[in-house]
Model the fold of this input.
Amino acid sequence: MSRKIDTRPPFESLNGKSPSQLFGKLKTPCYIIDESALIRNCEILASVMKNTGCKILLAQKAFSNFEFYPLISEYLSGTEASGLFEARLGKEEMPKGEVHVFCAAYRDDEFDELLSYADHIVFNSIRQLEKFGVKAKSSGKSIGLRINPECSTQEGHEIYDPCASGSRLGTTREEWDKNITSELLQLLDGLHFHTLCEQNSDALETTLQAAEDKFGDIMPKMKWLNIGGGHHITRRDYDIAKLEKCILYAENKWGVQVYIEPGEAVALNAGYLATRVLDIIRNNGVKIAVLDSSAACHMPDVIEMPYMPPLYNAEHEKPDAYVYRLAGPTCLSGDIIGDYSFDEPLSENELLLFGDMAIYTTCKNNTFNGMPLPDIYKLSLNGELIKLTDFGYKDFKNRLG
Ligand SMILES: *Cc1c(COP(=O)(O)O)cnc(C)c1O
Done:
């Protein structure tokens, strides 16, 4: 069975309006979060929840623009946090939702505060479970252990592969067998794995099989199984039927409540970065457009991942086009977004619009070189533009002294 998935490409929700019509008056650079695209994503995720009985959490490390949490909480079951402040944000801003937290290692001096926010605590190692598990359990928390199914399904992305050799993320079966005791097993309510990154459900199917091979005997003793993030559920070519099959398999076989905690999929293609051309430079036949936004500061994953974001009215490679290397204004030589092809030559001050800029941007940017952070706007369902926040010199200086 294959279902037709109606997800939007990066600029579809502009409804045919040009960036300058929509955003021409805004000071650049700025991010614009698109409410209608977020709703579309949430509707897709909510239908997976409805069809399978699974619960879906927002992984806040990808998207934590909390003005949208009331909206998201109409669809999803809660938030997932990677640390203390995210847990607090989830508790404060999505109070009706569940608050799950996973951290590679918890701190003694933060743990009590963490317990005041989170209701599900996932430990990375059996030693951490031993150290904090009784306290968490006696505070009424649901306790999980992150397992490492030792099954790599991605190539060429070692920094995003928790199953890479020597990874610190998750307990291997060997470590489990060496260290688990019946007292510690008693504490556990669930298992958690997170091994995917921007992947389709065939990779989940492979991983779930590996998890069963390694930990299948433990699963029936658990109340829940969290299958992590990295599921690109709202991408156009994602096979949702296969995802639902995997979820139902786990639920039926082991009697567990399944959780998924996507970050990207919640806000995929739900934001833009508006930027202007400051200068055009030529070097040995290469035309370089220097923008008022920076890959290093404002879209760090362009360099870290690396990837080339979609750009309105431009393509990555096109014959007979005007090709420009788009680059940031910082001193970093590698502050380059990529080579884009245009039908017309670029000009100074021209407005450009990057797509898919809601995720791993507003919550991951920085002020390297004393660059201001871009303001953040909401493009609301009725077409209204609302400024959510702006930034100034103080935001830069306060972090330094
Ligand atoms: C990063 C992460 C997520 C979210 O991943 P996406 O790729 O944004 O879907 C979920 N859970 C854990 C434990 C993570 O580390």
User: Anything to note?
Assistant: DSSP finds 14 helices and 16 strands in the chain.
